[in-house]
Amino acid sequence: MSKVLIIGAGGVGSVVAHKCAMNPHVFSDIMLASRTKSKCDKIAKDIQEMHGKTIQTAQVDADYASEVVSLIKSFQPKIVINVALPYQDLPIMDACLETKVHYLDTANYEPRDVAKFEYKWQWAYHDRYKEAGIMAVLGCGFDPGVTGIFTKYASIHHFDEIHYLDIVDCNAGNHGKEFATNFNPEINIREITAKGRYWENGKWIETEPLEIHKPIEYPEIGPKESYLLYHEELESLVKNFPTLKRARFWMTFSEKYITHLRVLENVGMTSIKPINFKGMEIVPLEFLKAVLPQPDTLGENYTGKTSIGCQIRGIKNGKIKTYFIYNNCDHAECYREVKAQAVSYTTGVPAMIGAMMVLTGKWSGAGVFNVEEFDPDPFMEQLPLQGLPWHELHDIELPHEYPSV
Ligand code: NDP
C-alpha cells in the first residue's frame, strides 16, 4: 500500500490517475497535481463517479523543483509519476533526489529551445540516484516503454541474439477532426518535423524529415504508409542490446495529416524560434498548440485502433528466426473505460504498471534505468490484466529488407 504523486493532468495523466485508482491494493493514496488545478479536479470527479475512489489534487508548477519538493514533503509519496512535459523532467528529478523519492516518466528530457531528445541529461543523474538509494525509471509509456520491454522479453525467451529491430507504430483511428495530434501537439510536432535517424552497422544514419516511407502491414488493420522517424528508445536499445545490427522506428501518418503539417511548416507555424508579435515575444509552435484540439478532448468520438509492436530478426539455435510482438488497442473501448483515446491509454497504462513494479519490489535497484534493464516478465504479466493484451507471431515473413545472411 503506497502513496503515489502524479504530475501532469493531460491526456496521459488522466489515464494514469484512473488506472492507479483501479488498483487500490497497490496505490492506496493518489494525488494528481498539475499547472492548472481545475483539470485535476475534473479528472478527480470522473474517477469518483466511475470507480468510487477519492483522489487528492493540487496545483504545482513543475518547472520549479522547489514547488515539487514542497508538494512531496507535504504528501509524502513513495513514487512520483511524471506525465507533464519533457521540459519538466529535470526539475522533477531534482525534487525526487532532494526528497529521496522514486521517479518514473514516459518521455526523455528536451530543452525548450532545441528540438533534440537525448538521454544524456537524465543518465547523468545515475550516480546521485544510486547514492541516494532511489530509482528513476525512464521512458515507461508504450514507445518508449512497452517497446523496450517487448524487445527484452524477445531477447530472453525467443532469441540467442537479436540483430534487426523495427518498431512499428500505427494509429488507424479516426477522431473526426481536420487536424489534431494524439499527444501534446508541441512535443508531437517537434518530433515529426525533426530529421529522421536510424542505427545501422554501428553508426547513426540521418535522413531528411519523413524522407523514408513505405507501406507496412499491421495486424487487423492492413497496410498503412509508415514513416521512418528518430525515436528516443532507439538510443537506449542500441546501448543495451549491442548485438543489434540495425534498429529503426516507423510511424503511420495519413495523407491529410502530412498535408496539414507541410502547410503549417511552410508558413512557419511549426518554428520554435521566438518572434515578435504586437510587442510580445511568442513561439509560433506554442501558439499553434494553443489553437489545436488538446489530446484529452479527442476521445469521445474516436473510432478505430492503434497497433504498436516490435518486428525482430535474429538467431535462435544457430538458425535465423523472425518474430513479431504487438498490441492492438481500440479507441472507443478506452473511452468507455477511462474517458481517454488509445494513444493516451497505451501510454498511461504502462506508466501505472511501471510504478506498480517499483512499489511491489518486482523492479528494484538504485540509480537511473531504462525499462529494458529490468525483468520484463512481471510487467508482461500485468499488461493484459490492465487492458493491453499482447500477441506473438513466430517465423513470419517480415515486410522489411534484410541482408540474405
Ligand atoms: P498534454 O498536453 O495533454 O498534458 C500535459 C500536462 O502537463 C498538462 O496538463 C499540462 O498542464 C501539464 N504541464 C505542462 N507544464 C507543466 C508544468 N510546468 N508544471 C506542471 N504541469 C505542467 O500531454 P499528454 O498527456 O498527451 O502527454 C504527456 C507526456 O506523455 C508528454 O511528455 C508526452 O511526450 C508523453 N508521451 C509519451 C508517450 C510514450 O509512449 N512514451 C506517448 C504519448 C505521450 P496545463 O493543462 O496547465 O497545460
Q: What share of residues is helical?
A: 25-40%
Mean pLDDT: 95
The strand count comes to 18
Classification by helices and strands: alpha/beta
Unreliable segments of 5+ consecutive residues: none
| Separation of the first and last Cα atoms | 52 Å
**Contiguous helical run count:** 14
Strand content is 25-35%
Major sheet attributes: 9 strands, mixed
Heteromolecules bound: NADPH dihydro-nicotinamide-adenine-dinucleotide phosphate
Shape designation: globular
Q: What's the alpha carbon Rg, rounded to whole Å? A: 20 Å
List descriptors.
14 helices, seven-stranded parallel sheet, single chain, 405 residues
Describe this structure in words.
The protein is of the alpha/beta class and 405 residues long. Helix content is 35%, strand content 27%. It has 14 helices and 18 strands. The protein has helices at residues 11-21, 37-51, 65-75, 89-99, 120-123, 126-132, 146-157, 185-192, 233-240, 255-266, 284-291, 331-338, 342-359, 377-385; strands spanning 2-7, 27-34, 56-59, 79-82, 102-105, 135-138, 161-171, 196-200, 203-207, 213-218, 222-229, 246-252, 275-277, 280-282, 305-316, 319-330, 367-370, 391-394. The strands form three sheets. Strands 7, 8, 9, 10, 11, 12, 15, 16 and 18 form a nine-stranded mixed beta sheet that branches. Strands 3-2-1-4-5-6-17 form a seven-stranded parallel beta sheet, with helices on both faces. Strands 13-14 form a two-stranded antiparallel sheet. Helix 1 (11-21) runs parallel beside helix 2 (37-51) and helix 3 packs across helix 4. It is globular. 48% of the residues are buried. The model has no long low-confidence stretch (mean pLDDT 95). The protein binds NADPH dihydro-nicotinamide-adenine-dinucleotide phosphate (NDP). NADPH dihydro-nicotinamide-adenine-dinucleotide phosphate (NDP) binds at residues 7-13, 34-36, 39, 60-63, 83-86, 88, 106-107, 141-145, 183-184, 187, 294-296, 343-344, 347.
